[in-house]
Fold:
Amino acid sequence: AAAADADDLREISGVGPFLEGKLNAVGIYTFKQVAALSPDVVTTLGATFGSFSDRIERENWIEQAKILHAAQYGETL
Structure:
């Protein structure tokens, strides 16, 4: 996805400006991309979050992203 197609990832509980910036820095801009994160990517990405390393799993970002995507686009992932 391109930055121009970005969703407001801060709608995911646990994502603030800092972590949204981290996601954007690796090319993640949409709920659909967050919903599709593999376990390996979750681990690798979490390692870049400093003290927030388990945030993706702890806050259940993948499920939240699926719900937000469905609500915004009418498409179930």
User: Anything to note?
Assistant: The chain is about 50% helix and 0% strand. Helices lie at 17-25, 31-35, 39-47, 55-58, 61-73. The CA atoms of residues 55 and 72 lie 23 Å apart. The two ends are 16 Å apart (CA to CA).
